[in-house]
Amino acid sequence: MGDLGNSTVDFHPKKPGMDKEGHEGDFGVTVEELCSLMELRGAEALQKIQENYTDTETLCHRLKTSPADGLSDNPADLEKRRQVFGMNFIPPKKPKTFLQLVWEALQDVTLIILEIAAIISLGLSFYQPPGGEIEACGNVSSGAEDEGEAEAGWIEGAAILLSVFCVVLVTAFNDWSKEKQFRGLQSRIEQEQRFAVVRNGTVIQIPVAEMVVGDIAQIKYGDLLPADGVLIQGNDLKIDESSLTGESDHVSKSIDKDPMLLSGTHVMEGSGKMLVTAVGVNSQTGIIFTLLGAGEVEEEKKDCKKAKKQDEAVAMEMQPLKSAEGGEVEEKEKKKTSVPKKEKSVLQGKLTKLAVQIGKAGLVMSAITVIILMLYFVIETFVIQGRVWLTECTPIYVQYFVKFFIIGVTVLVVAVPEGLPLAVTISLAYSVKKMMKDNNLVRHLDACETMGNATAICSDKTGTLTTNRMTVVQIYVGDQLFPDIPRPDQINPKTLELMTSAIAVNCAYTSKIMAADKEGGLPKQVGNKTECALLGLVLGLKQDYQAVREQIPEEKLYKVYTFNSVRKSMSTVLQMPDGSFRLYSKGASEILLRKCSFILGRDDEARAFRARDKDEMVKKVIEPMACDGLRTICIAYRELPADPMPDWENETDIVSNLTCITVVGIEDPVRPEVPEAIRKCQRAGITVRMVTGDNINTARAIAAKCGIIHPGDDFLCIEGKEFNRRIRNEKGEIEQERIDKIWPKLRVLARSSPTDKHTLVKGIIDSTTAEQRQVVAVTGDGTNDGPALKKADVGFAMGIAGTDVAKEASDIILTDDNFSSIVKAVMWGRNVYDSISKFLQFQLTVNVVAVIVAFTGACITQDSPLKAVQMLWVNLIMDTLASLALATEPPNEALLLRKPYGRNNPLISRTMMKNILGHAVYQLTIIFTLLFVGEKIFDIDSGRNAPLHAPPSEHYTIIFNTFVLMQLFNEINARKIHGERNVFDGIFSNPIFCSIVLGTFAIQIVIVQFGGKPFSCSPLNAEQWLWCLFVGMGELIWGQVISSVPTHQLKCLREAGHGPAPDEIMDEDLADDEDEIDHAERELRRGQILWFRGLNRIQTQIRVVKAFRSSLYDGIERPESRNSIHDFQAHPEFIITDSVHNIPLIDETDVDDESEHSNHNHSLPVTLNCNNNAVESRVYLGSSVSPCPASPLHSLETCL
């Protein structure tokens, strides 16, 4: 069944509990019946419900649940439902076993070459030429004392095989722990996903996996539905089903037209209740997952065999219900289908490029080494000594060649930094684990590292910069402004009653105020915080909103226009006892006041509310409130006659001629830690911008409190409407040049729509004015923030206030919704970058030294001073262990004192290059001194020119030992990469580092003293050990000397590891689904891409011509009438769903303000960005690329 280790639930693929009659358990309906019901839509589904169950009430009755009170919390009943209908859980794909990972690690080319060479060496070492002829074969060690040694010739081959085996085990173990961590992370994300269900008449939040068939679930704006169900009560519900059907239009759901709700779809508007009818593998998502083979359930055991053809076709597009393994499958599926979200991460791009360059250099060096060794041997043996090639000597000669080959391969092994990917993985995995503690739940590993390069953060206001605990602090009612909450007797009783019912009924019934958790604490706010503030006002005025709600339950609401980002208001219609209607409305004050024609006075009489009264109200009431940082909300109502019946679809007419009851000022205090966090960001070179839907004065006041703007600075605070006016040309098209004039100074964007946020983020990212490409992080919590979160380099979703849609689109989830956690993410991101650089500095020093030593040693003495097995040990130290030690350095505040590195900055700075070359010079000097005059210094036998299979010499052992000890001390030097003097600073805060250095030292002692023949080591005495240690410690002193040399004077030093060039980034966009960029393949692809570009341009031009032609023939259509991009483009890949089609933006309904059909009306989210870049890099061919299902607005980056 796959490894369910991480999952808290088991999975029942069989269908136990079937009755003879075919009904399961004693429920009046079977899994198959429910399954076939869920495959229908619209009228067909309604007809089926009527035929089989007469109505949804009966269906509830058959499933033994109550539409009002839900299931009882009886564990036996819940367990029975799980037995009969399955669990809400999709079994994960089996993880790769350890052996599979070992097998994958063995596929490494260099290792395979080494294995083959070792096996040949092993085979040949058993061959002995006939007795007398050994001398004839040249310089092979012989003689009585060496006989044991000669027979031990096999040891070298065996030792190489053993060390290869160690490397493989370590690699496999790392991969295994990485996957385990990933699964742990995934299950943590799943456990965090909870859903509201009604049990025993109360609404409780339960983990998604615990939902069962028969549950009554409450659904609201922003939810990702976790199971299939039938709607039993709904208000203005609109669902984005693109993840299942590929259709981007939002589907309206209602009890009488289309009540079928499917798992994996997103609620884009409205609220309601649904009866859960299918969960886990029986839900539409589950069926598709099973088709994909993620739920490994055999076909015959599947409960629902008929999955629609269309479902199979779009199976690949499915946004999965979180499976317990989720991660890998989900990521792969997403990658296959969605337009690549971002270029390969900056760091990965630089590292891949660097690794390839180093690898090429290593290959050349190793090839030259082998050729020189072979030539030298051949010339020495056959030319100078004049020997003849005897057939019986062939194996011995071959043995020599194999030995040379092994040396060559070893040079290659040491030169290729295969530890790089490992270091990155370890560093990221370690950071991700630690970031959990800092309230950052990382969904995409590379986001962590990208965050270190961030140059701009576009943050929401509510809940991120503020506490998201709202309270009404000022109120204007009955012609009076109360600076505090008034006593109930200060307000006219009728007005008070009207206000109470307006708030109680016209707030979502899921919003409520609960008793405090602990005595003396603040009451708990559940649901929408703004609504909670209003409900708190009702309680503060000694009224009871719950009584009103009991009198008018949610089912009795006649019509609800739910809040969305275009309306910026919410209205509810009630039918009064006499048949007439009353509409209650609440919303942003300056928007709703424009729709008011009357206002309640002190004596509860409505009087006319003229334009100049509105202006006065704005000046006297709203602006002073906003300047105190308060959010202003207006509450109004309207009586509507029963005859003639109002046209409820014409919202503009219904919500007009209102009577204003009151305007309240809601305070949402700035979080105490935010100003300091923003100061840190600014010091670290990161610009913080606030993008909010609030009034401009409120936004400016909060921005000043946070420290985003400072008095006297040159900055810009504008509203979304003004922003749109400035960035669009006469035709209403967005121009990058115009955005470039605004964004550098922009600090506050108020009254902004989600489209504005996306436009701003895209504008900053695409900008080429700054010398570095900007790296933008965005925070968001609403469904409508999805596009901006996806577009940003790093998207942060709110863990508490965020909707499921926002979380799906994000890279990192802030589990405490706090801005200061973002600063911690920046710190961790920079730390990852620095850790990789530290590792590189260390690794490259070892590389340079080891390769040069092996190469020159081989050329001069026909033998590498460092033997194959020793090289592999060095490789293990510098790759695996060093990456562990240096990649787990904890971050410190000092990281925030420097500017971001930027995308094009090299990985290896000039300071690092100075360190690498400086230390290499020291190490090479020492090693060559030891190699050529070491025997004189220590008064020992020379190890040079030793015959084949000669015993290990003390001379070469000292070289090996000194080399390793120098690396160990240099590892301490590598802890600092910016030229700091104190390399021991904070060394004890990293226990992993200390234990690895000491552990390596201990193993080195064992290898030297007891390694013997396999490690080509001869035991050393105390004096020799002290000399080795002394020379090793010289590294630390030499490090100080290097630090004293000013970098800026070393003009000759070049940086290395630059970011990929722009055209490569383009390639990587397409190569995003590949884990590693294969350079050869990239060259091939470049041709394809140019071809694609050409084809695209032609297609684009044809489309433009067609568009013009059609508009010429059909009578040129005026741009005013285009209220949705659907008129512009019919390509499904490029459709932007404008969630409310023909509702002009509320800002525009006031004719004085701006004509309703103004040219830059920003309910046109049309981005006709025709600069070539946009066309080149983002328009993909044909329909092979499906729209990214999670975003309600598909790519805004297309072009006519």
From TrEMBL:
<dbReference type="GO" id="GO:0030165">
    <property type="term" value="F:PDZ domain binding"/>
</dbReference>
<dbReference type="InterPro" id="IPR036412">
    <property type="entry name" value="HAD-like_sf"/>
</dbReference>
<dbReference type="Pfam" id="PF00689">
    <property type="entry name" value="Cation_ATPase_C"/>
</dbReference>
<dbReference type="InterPro" id="IPR008250">
    <property type="entry name" value="ATPase_P-typ_transduc_dom_A_sf"/>
</dbReference>
<dbReference type="InterPro" id="IPR004014">
    <property type="entry name" value="ATPase_P-typ_cation-transptr_N"/>
</dbReference>
<dbReference type="GO" id="GO:0005886">
    <property type="term" value="C:plasma membrane"/>
</dbReference>
<dbReference type="Pfam" id="PF13246">
    <property type="entry name" value="Cation_ATPase"/>
</dbReference>
<keyword id="KW-0460">Magnesium</keyword>
<keyword id="KW-0547">Nucleotide-binding</keyword>
<dbReference type="Pfam" id="PF12424">
    <property type="entry name" value="ATP_Ca_trans_C"/>
</dbReference>
<feature type="transmembrane region" description="Helical">
    <location>
        <begin position="916"/>
        <end position="934"/>
    </location>
</feature>
<keyword id="KW-0812">Transmembrane</keyword>
<dbReference type="GO" id="GO:0005516">
    <property type="term" value="F:calmodulin binding"/>
</dbReference>
<comment type="function">
    <text>Catalyzes the hydrolysis of ATP coupled with the transport of calcium.</text>
</comment>
<keyword id="KW-0472">Membrane</keyword>
<feature type="transmembrane region" description="Helical">
    <location>
        <begin position="404"/>
        <end position="430"/>
    </location>
</feature>
<feature type="compositionally biased region" description="Basic and acidic residues">
    <location>
        <begin position="11"/>
        <end position="24"/>
    </location>
</feature>
<feature type="transmembrane region" description="Helical">
    <location>
        <begin position="992"/>
        <end position="1012"/>
    </location>
</feature>
<dbReference type="InterPro" id="IPR006068">
    <property type="entry name" value="ATPase_P-typ_cation-transptr_C"/>
</dbReference>
<keyword id="KW-0109">Calcium transport</keyword>
<comment type="similarity">
    <text>Belongs to the cation transport ATPase (P-type) (TC 3.A.3) family. Type IIB subfamily.</text>
</comment>
<keyword id="KW-0406">Ion transport</keyword>
<keyword id="KW-0813">Transport</keyword>
<dbReference type="Pfam" id="PF08282">
    <property type="entry name" value="Hydrolase_3"/>
</dbReference>
<dbReference type="GO" id="GO:0046872">
    <property type="term" value="F:metal ion binding"/>
</dbReference>
<keyword id="KW-1003">Cell membrane</keyword>
<feature type="domain" description="Cation-transporting P-type ATPase N-terminal">
    <location>
        <begin position="50"/>
        <end position="126"/>
    </location>
</feature>
<protein>
    <recommendedName>
        <fullName>Calcium-transporting ATPase</fullName>
        <ecNumber>7.2.2.10</ecNumber>
    </recommendedName>
</protein>
<dbReference type="InterPro" id="IPR059000">
    <property type="entry name" value="ATPase_P-type_domA"/>
</dbReference>
<dbReference type="Pfam" id="PF00690">
    <property type="entry name" value="Cation_ATPase_N"/>
</dbReference>
<dbReference type="InterPro" id="IPR023298">
    <property type="entry name" value="ATPase_P-typ_TM_dom_sf"/>
</dbReference>
<keyword id="KW-0597">Phosphoprotein</keyword>
<keyword id="KW-0112">Calmodulin-binding</keyword>
<dbReference type="Pfam" id="PF00122">
    <property type="entry name" value="E1-E2_ATPase"/>
</dbReference>
<keyword id="KW-0479">Metal-binding</keyword>
<dbReference type="InterPro" id="IPR023214">
    <property type="entry name" value="HAD_sf"/>
</dbReference>
<dbReference type="InterPro" id="IPR006408">
    <property type="entry name" value="P-type_ATPase_IIB"/>
</dbReference>
<keyword id="KW-1278">Translocase</keyword>
<dbReference type="InterPro" id="IPR023299">
    <property type="entry name" value="ATPase_P-typ_cyto_dom_N"/>
</dbReference>
<dbReference type="GO" id="GO:0051480">
    <property type="term" value="P:regulation of cytosolic calcium ion concentration"/>
</dbReference>
<feature type="region of interest" description="Disordered">
    <location>
        <begin position="1"/>
        <end position="24"/>
    </location>
</feature>
<feature type="transmembrane region" description="Helical">
    <location>
        <begin position="954"/>
        <end position="972"/>
    </location>
</feature>
